[in-house]
User: Which sequence fits this backbone?
């Protein structure tokens, strides 16, 4: 099925134009329904199912770049290839937003988890793209369901201390190691939860929190 760019065709009769116009109508409904709701119902019509786009490049020059804001517009949402300077191990396509003042990467969460610990048993209560396993007091491994693109991801976390001291703090940190690939890979990350007690010069102790949580960005 193809689009008839000349429709109606002024060189043809009304009868001969009917199949041309009908073909364009069928084409429109078929193509629009791929990612829109088109001629479906009053609540759905005109809405997107999803959006797809190629990475943005500056015309014929196939290099990563960002579009300018068109006259009368306030924001652009686009996809752009990461450069080697930005991501040494993985130059893949990432989403961005641009407004009048800045270009911002829509830095999606690669994985995240929330887990409770009671009696030495860890129970995952929320997770995205990972499972969490307790391997010892204050020691955990998050295994990614789908591998991350590289080990250059950001790991941030914390926890809730199960104590009566209001100044006690739980931190969540990637486990120490002399070799990065023994604690941080594209398939998993090993981390510790640490209880900080003692005010300005806190004591650090491996600790099972009431609840721990983490997010993994980038990579």
Assistant:
């Amino acid at each position: 099925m193809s689009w008839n760019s000349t429709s109606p065709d002024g060189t043809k009769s009304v009868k001969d134009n009917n199949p041309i116009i009908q073909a364009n109508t069928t084409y429109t409904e078929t193509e629009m329904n791929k990612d829109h709701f088109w001629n479906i119902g009053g609540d759905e019509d005109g809405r997107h199912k999803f959006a797809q786009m190629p990475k943005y490049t500056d015309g014929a020059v196939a290099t990563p770049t960002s579009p300018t804001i068109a006259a009368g517009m306030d924001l652009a949402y686009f996809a752009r290839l990461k450069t080697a300077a930005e991501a040494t191990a993985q130059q893949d396509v990432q989403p961005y937003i641009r407004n009048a003042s800045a270009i911002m990467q829509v830095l999606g969460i690669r994985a995240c988890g929330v887990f409770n610990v009671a009696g030495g048993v860890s129970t995952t209560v929320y997770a995205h793209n990972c499972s969490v396993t307790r391997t010892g007091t204050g020691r955990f491994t998050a295994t990614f369901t789908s591998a991350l693109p590289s080990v250059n991801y950001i790991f941030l976390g914390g926890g809730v201390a199960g104590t009566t001291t209001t100044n006690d703090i739980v931190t969540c940190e990637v486990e120490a190691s002399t070799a990065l690939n023994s604690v941080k890979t594209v398939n998993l990350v090993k981390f510790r939860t640490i209880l900080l007690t003692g005010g300005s010069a806190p004591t650090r102790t491996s600790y099972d929190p009431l609840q721990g949580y983490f997010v993994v960005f980038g990579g």
About this structure: The chain has a mean pLDDT of 92. Helices lie at 14-32. The radius of gyration is 26 Å. The first strand starts at residue 57 and ends at 58.
